[in-house]
Design brief:
Blueprint (H helix, E strand, L loop, with lengths): L7 E4 L9 H10 L5 E6 L11 H10 L4 E6 L7 H7 L3 E5 L6 H10 L3 E6 L17 E5 L14 H15 L4 E5 L7 H7 L3 E4 L10 H20 L3
Helix pairs in contact: 2-3, 6-7
Bound molecules: D-xylitol-5-phosphate and zinc ion.
The site of D-xylitol-5-phosphate (DX5) has 22 residues, from β2 and β8.
Length: 233
């Protein structure tokens, strides 16, 4: 097994104050964010509508960080080119929404972005077997997608551990990301289970603390989790 590298942190701007989005992104960047996570919801694949192409283009102008776009939309193949053109460096689609997933992932790579695949909490890890060689990222949803601020589904920890081991064997260069309900109190367990990228929305953008304080707390938990993983838990 390759030595574990330090996990990356991707704040999800879904929980940011959209009236001050540029400032919120600048605060995340100053606090040491590694990427910006951008959640797209279409009101069909998930029961909520969020932000889309014009906002992504604005975020692209507002930061030098890579942008990690999470498409929670039905038939994402219709919009791959538009999202890459608007600024997506990483483009992740749901297995449940993409009919021709294999082709869709290949197209994302042809467009010059990093292809990612994700699965809802109710979808088993084995459903990804055929596409693992095609991706740069696998994203485990630890909530049912659609909203920020939901509770982490504990059962997904086993899926994180399973996919960590599967990627080690089948595509060791790919990254394992986790999204949903991750905060300072549980992030160590998520990293110990094998997460390489932590996505956090309400744990970073909230009324209780500054973005810098929230980031520092999460980083401390991430370091603790990495030490636990290195020590074999
Ligand atoms: C949920 C989104 C997440 C969301 C996470 O459907 O995909 O990226 O912003 O928010 P928290 O971290 O608050 O659960
Ligand atoms: Zn997301």
């Amino acid at each position: 097994m390759p030595a574990a590298t330090a996990p990356r942190l991707a704040p999800s701007i879904l929980s940011a104050d959209f009236t001050r989005l540029g400032e919120e992104i600048a605060a995340a960047e100053a606090a040491g964010a590694d990427l910006i996570h951008f959640d797209v919801m279409d009101g069909l694949f998930v029961p909520n509508i969020s932000i889309g192409l014009p906002v992504l283009a604005a975020v692209r102008r507002a930061t030098r960080l890579p942008i990690d776009v999470h498409l929670m939309i039905d038939r994402p193949e219709r919009y791959l080119e538009a999202f890459v053109e608007a600024g997506a460096d990483w483009l992740t689609v749901h297995i449940e929404g993409a009919i021709h997933l294999h082709r869709t992932l290949a197209q994302i790579r042809e467009l010059g972005a990093h292809p990612g695949v994700t699965l809802n909490p109710g979808t088993p890890a084995a459903a990804l077997d055929e596409v693992l060689p095609l991706v740069d990222l696998v994203l485990v949803m630890s909530v049912n997608p659609g909203f920020g601020g939901q509770a982490f589904i504990e059962g997904q920890l086993a899926k994180i551990a399973t996919l960590h081991a599967t990627l080690d064997a089948k595509n060791p260069d790919a990254i394992l990301a986790v999204d949903g309900g991750v905060h300072a109190e549980n992030v160590a367990r998520v990293v110990a289970a094998g997460a390489d990228r932590i996505i956090a929305g309400s744990a970073i953008f909230n009324d209780r603390q500054s973005v810098a304080e929230a980031t520092a707390e999460l980083r401390a938990g991430m370091a603790e989790g990495l030490a636990q993983r290195a020590g074999g838990r």
